Amino acid sequence: VKRQLSDFIGSPVTDAEADTMIQAARANLAGALGTVLDDDADLARIYARHGQQPPAPAAAAAGGQVEAVCDRLAMLEAALATAAEQGPASLFGIAYLKTVRRILFELRTGLLNRKLAEEEALRLLSSARHNLREAARILHPQQGPAMTEAVRGQISELHGLANDGTAQLEAMHHEVMRLFDHSGDTALIPAGR
Amino acid sequence: VAADNAWGSAVASETVANMDFPEFFARERKPLVRFVMSLGADPDLAADIAQTAFERAFPLWATIQYPRAWLRRVSHNELIRLSRTAARETLTDAPPDRSAAMSAALAVELRAQTRDVLTALISLPPKQRLVMAWAYDGFSDGEIALELGDSPAAVRQNHSKARKKLRRALGSIGRDVQ
């Protein structure tokens, strides 16, 4: 009976599995809090409560770094959007490219709004790379069925784009991480910069 | 519960010394809300408590040596104070005056598994829940013992029991993690 009950409830996960689940939940929660909390307004409330004005946003170098990273993400997004619109709609790999575009948009807006936790940024980057790799695998020119030369050419271009995009995101990994201070798991792109 | 003004304890987990207040707020506000939620507060209450803690920290900023620990201690004490106040209040037909707008918005953003994990965390007995909240925010058993005024052995025991219970509770949620 005890074993049946145990089977019904589910066997315990390992320590490592528990940590993974909890870290994923914490990252999701941090990201979600970033979308519902207004840091600028609440910081201003604290200053106002003590009769002070909040400091003016600093147009710091870090701000420029954020913009630079976001510009590169936007360029990749635009390239993916164009490819997705012009490619054969029925092509399965197109769905992956559209997914990557959506992920990059989420990453870019999160960085621009300074409301993205480091873990969430990492997760989005990793997810985008994974989807691009999948797109590249599916869109491999050699794997295409009998098709016209034009379609074959399009698939080849999409394959190249997926490969280039993967390489670009891998190169950008450290740039994105540099936007965060590595001493914690929270968004370190200060609000208001 | 350690006193609010006992901020002289040596907390090795602090890595944010000399950060200015706005920068610290931007970085630590969300983790503090998350900490209070993992103690059992709903999101709106947790956000209110975190805001109160930061408001108290503001005029003392130059004197607070270990702000991460300080804010968690103040937040925990505030949660206890509010819980006691709520327990003393008599029931009325009046609607609650606290908005739950943030809780509703947050619920939309959270994955189902995140909600299950949070439920598992706040289902722990209070002391174990408290130890895990500190531990997941990067504090060692020794630091937690200092903060809670417990012996290191008691913290280790609670930590171990909590992890065991969590492993079982998470097992019933499922192993299909990323």
Features:
heterodimer; A: 193 residues; mainly alpha; 72% helix; B: 178 residues; 0% strand; globular; disordered N terminus
Topology:
The complex is a heterodimer of chains A (193) and B (178).
Chain A: H1 2-9, H2 15-36, H3 39-49, H4 61-86, H5 92-112, H6 118-138, H7 149-178
Helix pairs in contact in A: 4-5, 4-7, 5-6, 6-7
Chain B: H1 21-38, H2 43-60, H3 67-88, H4 101-109, H5 112-122, H6 126-136, H7 141-148, H8 152-171
Task: State the gist of this model.
The complex is a heterodimer of chains A (193) and B (178). Chain A has helices at 2-9, 15-36, 39-49, 61-86, 92-112, 118-138, 149-178.
What's the main sheet of chain A like? none
Order of helices and strands of chain B: HHHHHHHH
What overall form of chain B do the CA principal axes indicate? globular
Beta strand count of chain B: 0
The helix content of chain B, as a percent range, equals 55-70%
- Interface with most residues: A-B, 48 and 47 residues
Structural class of chain A: mainly alpha
Biggest sheet character of chain B:
none
Average pLDDT value of chain B?
82
Q: State the total count of DSSP E strands of chain A.
A: 0
- What share of the residues of chain B does DSSP label as strand, in percent? under 5%
pLDDT < 50 runs, ≥5 residues of chain B: 1-13
Radius of gyration of chain B: 17 Å
Q: Give the integer mean of the pLDDT values of chain A.
A: 77
| Gyration radius of chain A, rounded | 22 Å
Number of helical elements of chain B: 8
Give a written overview of the molecule.
The complex is a heterodimer of chains A (193) and B (178). With 193 residues, chain A is mainly α. Chain A is 72% helix and 0% strand. Chain A is built from seven helices and no strands. Chain A has helices spanning 2-9, 15-36, 39-49, 61-86, 92-112, 118-138, 149-178. Chain A is globular and about 70 Å long. Chain B has 178 residues and is an all-alpha fold. Chain B has eight helices and no strands. In chain B, helix 2 crosses helix 3 (67-88), helix 6 (126-136) packs across helix 8 (152-171) and helix 7 (141-148) crosses helix 8. The longest helix of chain B is centred in the middle third of the chain and has 22 residues, at 67-88. Chain B is globular and about 45 Å long. The model of chain B is unreliable at 1-13 (pLDDT under 50).
